[in-house]
Design goal:
- The protein is an alpha/beta fold.
- The chain is about 45% helix and about 10% strand.
- Helix 1 (about 5-35) packs across helix 3 (about 80-90) and helix 8 packs parallel to helix 10 (about 270-280).
- The longest helix is centred in the first third of the chain and has 30 residues, at about 5-35.
Length: about 325
């Protein structure tokens, strides 16, 4: 594409400075974003894209285009957006935002065009180092959810950088955007939706897992004693109780019996390991015999720190024995 000389000169003159700005933002913002488990993407506008924007007349000062350099902060869902705004506010000086306020949009309810949050920021002034030339440059930070970003990537060539105009393709792309926005809404409001009569139900497995979690919290009262993923731990324990034909409601009693037997709650055993130990050592449960039946599919993980009868350490296809590895191995 033929590009006018003033546009080419402006892009060529500005690009090195905006590349320096990009490297600075990568060094400062990118680690802060990624330490939260989010994603960061950036770019300096390419010449052709720069020229096309200048020719639309939307760049008031095309030599310092506000999105000459731009980056994206990609968060899991809508609920993380306020935290992302706070992170950016703590890092940069926000000059402008679009939309200007939450809860307002220029789109009608039937539109599903681009409307993600954009912040236009500058590096805040400091006194502990000399000013750099790029410190005064405004740049764009878009905040997107993962589903919004996925839609951008999947449909970008259908809507933006294309050599054809197709109403059906754009229609399909925006139908997908509408479906993803509905999915975003469902995820963000899952807590409220879960109370709706249509879905406010429980199956037996869910009830059992909730019972296990409640009992575990009664025994391991210190937060650091239990994993963050309590659901997975509860699922493993429910499987053990099913293998032993036991009701999970008996967990509290079984744990109390084991604590009485050993005299205290061992600090060197995980909750899972202590539950296994409690099941195997309780003489009234006959757990080992029931567990080793052919019809049982559950597996048990054991290790040397657990107080178990020798029969539990005998080779068995569904008993996984963890062994310490020496430094020389």
């Amino acid at each position: 594409m033929k590009i006018a000389r003033p546009i080419r000169d402006a892009h060529e003159n500005g690009k090195p400075l905006y590349q320096q700005l990009m490297q600075e933002v990568r060094a400062v913002l990118k680690p802060r974003v990624e330490e939260r488990g989010w994603f960061y993407r950036d770019r300096v506008k390419a010449l052709e894209s720069y020229a096309l924007k200048v020719e639309t007349g939307r760049a008031a000062d095309y030599t310092h285009m506000e999105d000459f350099f731009g980056c994206k902060v990609i968060v899991p869902n809508f609920s993380h957006i306020p935290e992302a705004i706070q992170l950016i506010s703590d890092t940069y000086q926000i000059e402008e935002r679009r939309p200007k306020v939450d809860g307002e949009t220029h789109n009608s309810s039937s539109d599903f065009i681009f409307d993600e949050l954009r912040l236009y920021v500058k590096i805040p002034p400091v006194t502990d180092r000399p000013a750099r030339e790029f410190d005064s440059l405004k740049f764009e930070i878009q905040i997107k959810t993962i589903l919004q970003y996925a839609w951008d990537i999947a449909t970008h060539d259908l809507i933006y950088k294309t050599d054809d105009v197709s109403w059906p393709k754009e229609r399909i792309a925006y139908q997908v955007k509408a479906m993803l926005e509905h999915a975003e809404l469902t995820i963000a409001e899952a807590g409220k939706l879960a109370t709706a009569p249509a879905v406010s139900k429980q199956d037996r497995r869910t009830k059992d897992m909730l019972t296990v979690i409640e009992e575990l919290r009664k025994v391991w009262t210190e937060a650091e004693s239990l994993p963050e993923d309590l659901k997975r731990l509860a699922d493993s324990i429910v499987a053990l109780f099913k293998a032993g034909d036991l009701a999970v409601e008996t967990l509290s009693e079984i744990l109390a019996e084991e604590q009485k037997r050993v005299g205290l709650l061992p600090k060197d055993l995980s909750p899972y390991a202590f539950v296994v130990q409690a099941l195997v050592n309780n003489p009234t449960l006959n757990f080992e015999t029931k567990f080793k039946r052919d019809k049982v599919r559950a597996k048990i993980v054991i290790h040397d720190d657990m107080d178990l009868p020798a029969s539990m350490r005998a080779p068995h296809s569904r008993i996984i024995v963890l062994r310490a590895v020496s430094a020389t191995e």
